[in-house]
Each structure stands twice: as C-alpha cells, then as structure tokens.
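User: Predict the complex.
Assistant: Input components as received:
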Amino acid sequence: MTIQQTQDEIIADFELFGDWMDKYEYIIQLGKELPMIEEQYKTDDNLIRGCQSRVWLHTEFKDGKLLFTADSDAVITKGLISLVIKVLNGQTPKAIIESDLYFIDAIGLSSHLSPTRSNGLLSMVKQIKLYALAYQKKSVES
Amino acid sequence: MTNTNDILESHMIDVEAVRKDFPILSTHVYGYPLVYLDNAATTQKPESVLHAMDDYYHTINSNVHRGVHHLSQQATEAYEGARQKIADFINARHNHEIIYTRGTTESINLVASCFGRKFLKPGDSILISAVEHHSNIVPWQMICEEKGASLKVIPVDDEGELILDNLDKLLDDVKLVSFNYVSNSLGGVNPVQAIITAAHKRGIPVLLDAAQAVQHLEVDVQSLDVDFLAFSSHKLYGPTGIGVLYGKEEWLNQLPPYQGGGEMIKTVTFEKTTYNDLPYKFEAGTPDMAGAVGLAAAIDYVLGLGIRNIQQVEHSLMSYALGTLTEINGFRLIGKAVAERRAGVISFLVGDIHPFDLGEILDKQGIAVRTGHHCAQPVMDRYCIPGTVRASLAIYNNSQDIDRLAAGIRKASALLS
Ligand SMILES: Cc1ncc(COP(=O)(O)O)c(C=O)c1O
C-alpha cells in the first residue's frame, strides 16, 4: 500500500466514530496494544528529547526500505505513533521524505503536530524524515 | 462535604458577580463551557482592565516624560500614578522604589546582572531554593558562571516544605538569597519570614519572587523587610508585558544601571554619561505606558474585592478542591495536603497516567489545566516524576469548576487506565 492509501484507510476508519470519546478510546487502545520497540533499543540515543512525553524511535534499513519501531510514555502519543508507523513502515526513504501526513489533521488530532504542545509526535515525524534523508544520501553514495 | 457556595457568600465576595466581570469566562471550548484552571500561568482580565487600556489608547496616548504638550502630561500622570498605586499595593516606602520591568523574569535578571556585576566575586555564592521557577535559577547560574561564583540550594522535603535546619550553615559565603514566596509547581507557601530573618542576621539581602503570591495574599514589603521583590502583572489580572521590581532605595542606589538608552540618563556626551535618579536609572527606553495603566486598573480591581477577602474565598475553594479531588481513586497530590500552607496551585498525578494524557482528555472536556514540569524541572527530578497536572485557582473559580474538574479526571481515568 502507498502512504496515501494507508492514510485514507485510517481516515475512513475514524469517520465511523460518533464522538471524541470513541476516537480517543480507539487511539488509547492502539497505544496499549503496541509495545513496539524492543527494550534493548529504548536507549538514550534513541530518545527524542524536548518533549513533554518521551518518545523512543528505532530505525532499520532493509532492502531499500525503512522499518520503524517506537514507544512513548504517554499512551495517546503512543497510539498516534502506531498510526504514523503503520503509514510509513516499509516505505522507501524517498517516499517518506516526500510524504505529507495529512491524516493526523483529518482525524482531528492536529494539535499533536503543533510545536506549541511540545509533545513527542511532531519531533518523531521530524526524526523519521531526518533518518530517511540520511539513508537516501547513503544509498546514493554507495 | 460542605457546600462552598455558602462559605463563599459569607466572605463578602459574590463570585458569580465576579465571573461576569471576566468576558472570556463565557467562552465555550469543544462545545463545553470553559473551566479555566490555568491561572498560575496567567489570569484572565476583568472588563475594567481591558477598558482602561482601550481608553488610554483612545484618549491620552503619547510618550511620557518628554513632551511639553498636554497629552504627554496626561500620559505621564497616568503612568506615574500607576507607579504610586503599585507602591501603595505592596506598601513600599517610596514610589521610586518601584521599577517597571517586563515581568518577574526581567526583574530577577535585572538584580542578578546588576547586583552580580557589582558585588559577586570568585568563591561567593547565591542561595536559592529547591522549588524555584527556571526564571529564578538560570539568571543566577549565568552571573555565577561569569563571576566564578556558585549556586547553593535550600533543600525540600517529600511534602514540598523547605528544610531550614542547616540554613545558617548554607548562608556561609552567600551574597544574596533569592527564592519564591509561593511555589508555582507545588503551590506551597514558603517560610518567608524565617529565611529573611536568618539572612538579615548576617547582613545578606533577600530577593523574593512573588509571582505566585501577590494575587493570593497580602504582601507588605516593609513588614517583610525584604530587599527586592518581583512580580508580573499578567498573573494579577493585569496585562502581559509589564511587571515590577521593588527594591529598597539603599540597595537600588548601590546597583549599576541595567540597560542603557533614553530616559535612564541625566547627561550624555561622547566622553561620559551620567545616570538618572531612581527609578529612571533602571528604565531605559520608552516604557509600556498602556501596560502600566492596565496594571493600575488590575490593582484597583483586586483592592476593590479586598485581598484578604480574596485569600479567604480562595482558601475555602482550595479546601473544597483538596477534599473533592483526594476522593478520586489513585489521586496523588504532590506537596502538602493542607490548604493553609498552599496558595492557588494543586499539582497532582492520577495512578500511572501520564500527565500529558490526562491534560489532553481534560482539554477535550473544556477544562484548561497545565501539564508538564511547569518551568521547574529540578522540582520534578526531586520527586522522580515526569511532570504533573496543575490546576490553579483564581478569584473567579467556583465549586462547579472543581466539580467539573473532578468529573473530568474520573472520565479521563476510566479512559486511560
Ligand atoms: C514563581 C514564578 N516565578 C517566575 C515566573 C516567571 O514569570 P514571567 O514569565 O511573567 O516573567 C513565574 C511564572 O510562571 C512563576 O510562577
């Protein structure tokens, strides 16, 4: 699936929810179900700083595609992270660099991408794009 | 549980009438009537303050102290009248002991810079407390680093009380003590008198950060005998962008100027500038005239209600809030659970819920609280927590606000646990 297709699917899922409570319940559930990152990768190096909620991000590069695992100490952030990863996992660096994560706005959680909240999601997305940029450079050089 | 409305009325402040003075309180957020409990960050402004500032721009705006013309004289009178009002509000001996600044942060930076440049030497120390806002940590760190001096800290116990047992020993080598009257992260009222007395016994001056005090309790700089005191207008129902540094005349006269520019000079030649007298020596550049007028209106508003009445009403509400909130499953208050030892702030966690998650679900219910470290990272480190949720009270909050908060927390807790 392309980044766009996955996003549209998530947006369609969220349209089924009646009110904000249902939506949050779902996101929180996603957050709880996903201990995504292996403990060994929850290191200070993988910690994204400067956020109210802490986010750990681990990246692997395999067959020209990027694979992510992550975690957060705040469960709403974690639920959103799992959605972001669902969208970006297994994509090429180029596709990730060019991606626009419009689904977060569309499902009504744009505040999580606002720098004023200093929560982990925005920093994580930035970090993912930085990694993608670095891997793209590397694959061009090699 | 007692009905706070009965108690509130007996204190001569009609909170429902007060609420009507604050237009923003009728706002709806996500379809819910706003519950504003982020007053320690900034308070809302009454109509009278908004009107005073509007009126200033409509009728007398012009630069102060400079013009021969009529408007300039009116503006100067309003601006200097505000200074007198501030002096009276904190019972300063002279109105030239009131320096206008941009806020608490700038007031502290002014003293740190000017006092530090004049008096700090290698080996000296500045003493602060373990419950300070970053604004009362970083300026001192900066000047200490520059001067080869060091920063010492009065420790705090598990309940948020400052530990004064070793205060006398701590005061060795100390050139100035700077701490807050009320902690913005925990809400504890600190033992101001004991610390000032101990410092003065050794001839050490004291700066009091009163940013979280002046809106909740009576502050009298003469009876406190404090040497410097800082606060912000915007936490006292006044406009943003203006604040106050009080300094005893004898101290302010010893300090070098802060910034250079217009207004702070007597004579300027390229060889030598002589500086103006107090308070202008510390007020370079065109000041915030409209802000001063707004602050004066805010002080009028507070005095109209009576600061003691405000303290009593807020105290009742604090008792009610502590009683109501501590009944919530998993509710963990950070700091002492005694209303007498608190002003304004309730800092808490619920179970293992991350404060950020709780804050977000409260927000979705139209309840404004603050989450995070509240610009006091060392305090959070002291209690080994990532941050707290902070609900902070003002005179317009009522028991319904607390009930909405409690219901909001229960709902969030059900969703998040
Ligand atoms: C205790 C304390 N000190 C200092 C400050 C800084 O005040 P301002 O940002 O208005 O300069 C605050 C405000 O958050 C505070 O609560």
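The domain at 4-45+306-416 of chain B is CATH 3.90.1150.10 (Aspartate Aminotransferase, domain 1).
Let me know if you want any component modeled separately.
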